[in-house]
From TrEMBL:
Signal peptide segment: none
Organism: Bordetella ansorpii
Keywords from the named record: Membrane, Transmembrane, Transmembrane helix
Tagged with keyword Transmembrane: yes
Protein name: Membrane protein
Highest taxon in the source lineage: Bacteria
InterPro entries the UniProt entry points to: EamA_dom, EmrE-like
Length: 286
């Protein structure tokens, strides 16, 4: 097997693991903050293990600016995960995942509004396609509808992830990706521990098992595979595969929990995924 083909298998497996995140959110009977705390704790242990496998250092010296950036990014990661799991609990796996998949649109808006970067016509088209997809996915425009509330939480999760991506672009440059992930997960755990510590004794043993699987496989292993694949794939190719995450998530929700998507939801999902894939296929502007 060629190294390129092996890298493609790694990145597809990572996308499947990312797609399973919502499944564990559905399985675990605990609050969104407890799920996020448990995920982060197990992820740190897994990342340390995988870093040792690759003989990579996780404690390289950081400047005060880099440390501040990692702390802020960790808080955004905590917000992203908590809002995503709230979305899963309220609206279901498919709604949550498609709401989160809006993050490329938020990145486009933020780069234009906050960072004053010129937004090209093609990016506005992507934004329009994602928006149209979200309109189709929205069950109704009534906030009394649980699906609509769930989608709103999913959109908040997408916004937090977009802010995280932009923060990492500025503050994580030059730092090993495994160290970035480990530090940010430590921040997530420390941020949520005060509010969630009292709930930990009430978490059933089966839920601790699901949390361990979520943290080790859907966070630690998936990140390890993602980072490892990037040594043989360019970021664009990897991003196109990761764009399939909503497809895997909806398929798992359908098979495991009989959360059958409506025709409108499928149509909206197709638009959103198509927009992400098309965005990845375009040549970058110079």
């Amino acid at each position: 097997m060629t190294s390129h083909r092996y890298a493609l298998i790694q990145i597809h497996f990572a996308a499947v693991l990312f797609g399973l995140t919502g499944v564990f959110g559905e399985l675990i009977h605990a609050s969104a903050s407890v799920i996020t705390l448990g995920r982060a704790m197990f992820a740190v242990a897994a990342l340390i293990f995988f870093a040792r496998l690759q003989r990579r250092k996780l404690l390289s010296p950081l400047t005060p600016a880099q440390m501040t950036g990692l702390i802020l990014a960790g808080l955004l990661l905590a917000a992203h995960w908590v809002t995503f799991f709230v979305s899963v609990k309220v609206g279901g796996i498919a709604i949550a995942t498609l709401g989160f998949a809006s993050f490329p649109a938020f990145i486009t808006l933020l780069e234009g509004l906050v960072f004053r970067e010129k937004v090209r016509m093609a990016e506005w088209i992507v934004l329009g396609l994602v928006t149209a997809g979200l309109v189709l996915v929205t069950p109704s425009f009534d906030l009394a509808d649980q699906g609509t509330v769930g989608l709103a939480w999913g959109l908040l999760s997408g916004l937090a992830f977009a802010l995280l991506a932009l923060m990492n672009r500025r503050s994580a440059a030059g730092i090993d990706a495994m160290q970035v992930a480990c530090c940010q997960n430590i921040v997530v755990a420390l941020a949520l521990l005060p509010a969630s510590a009292s709930q930990l004794p009430t978490v059933a043993a089966i839920n601790w098992m699901w949390l361990a699987l979520l943290g080790v496989f859907c966070t630690g292993l998936s990140h390890y595979l993602f980072v490892s694949s990037l040594t043989r794939l360019n970021a664009r190719s990897a991003g196109l595969v990761i764009a399939l995450e909503p497809v895997y998530a909806i398929a798992f929700a359908w098979m495991l929990f009989d959360q059958q998507p409506t025709v409108r939801m499928v149509a909206g999902g197709v638009l959103i995924v198509a927009a992400i894939v098309w965005s990845g296929l375009r040549k970058p502007a110079h």
